[in-house]
Amino acid sequence: MKKFKILACALAITSFGLTSCSNDDDNAVNEEAQIAGTYNLTEVRTAEPTDFNDDGTFNANQMRESDCYNDSKLILNADNTFTYHKNRIIVNTADGTSGCTEGTFTGTWTILDGSGSDAVIAATYEDNNGDETTLNLVKTGVEIIQTDLFGTYPDRNDEGGAITTFGEVEYVYRK
């Protein structure tokens, strides 16, 4: 009977110890799990509307002006790695032509501030030139926005040739 009481006490203490303590690592894993997922590009908002497709309608969302952005996405994995599928318009300013280009990059991400549903995230990868590039991402709910304050976006000159315009560009991704 004495052995049974000792065993019962030991089990009670152990179960209390396992359930009463919280672990900060569990919170970090939960936040990363809330962030993890595939975010598809839904908008490319530019400082000024353009009529890049020459249909007579100006749009600040460049995805309405070109299919080149289709299938762009961020895939954030729970292990803090990510894949960036970057599709966009490339402009040859020498002759006023344009075309689509795509690239796939991999890297790591980390939470800079906030938590799973509302967080500031830094996602770092190596670009085609071998340079380290960091995307500063702001996650609110199921949406991630990457803002490029000194970005470039396609436009048309007075003769209809493709040009590059400088200004703020917001890339909006949705889970």
Question: Notable features of this structure?
Answer:
175 residues; alpha+beta; single chain; eight-stranded antiparallel beta barrel
Instruction: Give the overall average pLDDT.
Output: 86
What is the beta-strand fraction? over 45%
Q: Low-confidence parts, pLDDT < 50 over ≥5 residues? A: 1-28
The succession of helices and strands, N to C, reads: HHEEEEEEEEE
**Major beta sheet, strand line-up:** 1-3-4-5-6-7-8-9
Q: Taking Cα atoms only, what radius of gyration do you get, to the nearest Å?
A: 24 Å
How many β strands by DSSP? Answer: 9
What multimeric state do the chains show? single chain
Distance between the termini: 59 Å
Percent helix, as a range, is: 10-25%
Shape: elongated
**Number of helical stretches of at least 4 residues:** 2
**Sheet having the most strands:** 8 strands, antiparallel, barrel
Structural class: alpha+beta
